[in-house]
Amino acid sequence: MGAYIAGSGTCLPPNIVTNDDLAAIMDTTDEWIQSRSGVRQRHIANVGVGSAELGANAVLASLDDAGLSVNDVDVLISATMTPDHFAPGNAPLIQDRAGLGAIAAHEIRQQCGGFLYGLDLADALIAAERAETVVVVGSEVHRGYMPFGASIHRLLGTSTAPVTDEDYATATASRAWSVLFGDGAAALVLRPGPTDAGILATTLHTDGSLFELIHVPAPGFVNQPWSSTAQIEAGLHQPSMSGGELFRNAVRLMPQAIRTVLETYGATVADLDLVLAHQANQRILDGIAKQLDVDPAIVASNIADYGNTTAATLPLLWHDTKNDGRVPAGTLLAFTAFGAGAHWGAALYREPAAVTS
Asked: Quick one: pLDDT at residue 232?
């Protein structure tokens, strides 16, 4: 019995910030950003709006798309790296906001690999007949990471005040990574399906020796105190990234994982119709296509419109490709991701014909 995707839904903040908007608050250009990442614009949540709110809205939209109600949900799986609060995380907040009742709500932290891990968990629960309807949601508000100072209000349209020299310099210092991220949420509803469709095979991997490729140094309970003004002043609360090593590992390990699930199922790369890969950088997507030796058009891309939305990326990409008619019945596709941890893997999926239940 394979778990199939019965519905999808998204929630995107209404504020769209273009590369030209960013060029007004830091030393960058649209050409510089697009040539290095493929990002053209991103959605940014208003101050006071968190990832749990976006996630709950995405969950409700996905249930509506599936023709189900909140009473049909057995399990919620929430993936995020930007929770509203350090504890207890987003899962209970989304469960409550969406009105799902006192069901099991899992909170997982695999960052950009989070949604992929959530799909695997949902498939396992359904295969074990521990649940019939599982909603997996990825939700992110990276706005809080952004070292833009008062300039964030200019981007959100809530201020027209001139950008200070200090804010301009601070934003410029972060441009290698801060221009990449966007906010948003998306959810998928999974239910039991036919044995020859749905999730066919998965492979997941973690290598903690690679954690420094991308991590947020502080706050953390290895420190005393766990959070301090000194940490913030040193910028330790912002992501630290090793771009070159991230690229090399991502373009090697994601194609490797795709080949593994294809081999497990008894298929080859030539059988693939579509690859839904984590949208971190267009260069990585191009690298995946090259490593797999496939037409780049098979590796779907929406990074230009959203940027890197971390755990929300894969369900956003599914929602877009599905609604664009690129996932007709019989489509064989691979989900894949690589993220901080390091966590990576792939899931092979076949879109079923109409399922009645």
From this structure: 87
What phi and psi, each to the nearest 5 degrees, are found at residue 17? Answer: -110, 115
Residue 299 is given by DSSP the state B
Predicted local distance difference test score (pLDDT) of residue 356: 60
Q: What share of the chain is helix, strand, coil (3-state, %, to 5)?
A: 40, 20, 35
The catalytic position among 106, 308, 319, 343 is 308
Q: Catalytic residue at 308?
A: yes
pLDDT at 166 > cutoff 80 = yes
Instruction: Map out the domains of the chain as residue ranges.
Output: 3-192, 198-350
- Catalytic-labelled residue, pool 278, 281, 319, 343: 278
- Residue 279: what pLDDT? 97
For residue 354 the two structure tokens come to 């109409």
Smallest CA-to-CA distance from 347 within 249, 206, 200, 205 is with 200
pLDDT above 60: residue 357: no
Integer Cα distance of 342 and 124 in angstroms: 22
In the chain the beta strands, taken as DSSP E runs, fall at: 3-11, 16-18, 41-43, 75-79, 104-108, 134-140, 184-192, 198-206, 214-215, 240-241, 274-277, 332-339, 343-350
- The residue from 11, 43, 90, 112 that is catalytic is 112
Q: CATH classification of 198-350, choosing from 3.40.47.10, 1.10.8.80, 1.10.3720.10, 3.40.640.10?
A: 3.40.47.10
* Known catalytic residue at 11: no
Q: Taking 70 as the threshold, does the pLDDT of residue 277 lie above it?
A: yes
Residue 41 tokens, joined: 């614009």
Q: Nearest Cα to 138, choosing from 103, 178, 91?
A: 91
Q: Count the Cβ atoms, other than its own, within 10 Å of residue 165.
A: 8
Q: Is residue 300's pLDDT more than 80?
A: yes
Q: Which two tokens stand for residue 25?
A: 């608050």
Q: Domain 3-192 adopts which CATH fold?
A: Peroxisomal Thiolase; Chain A, domain 1 (3.40.47)
The answer to whether the beta carbons of residues 121 and 71 sit under 8 Å apart is no
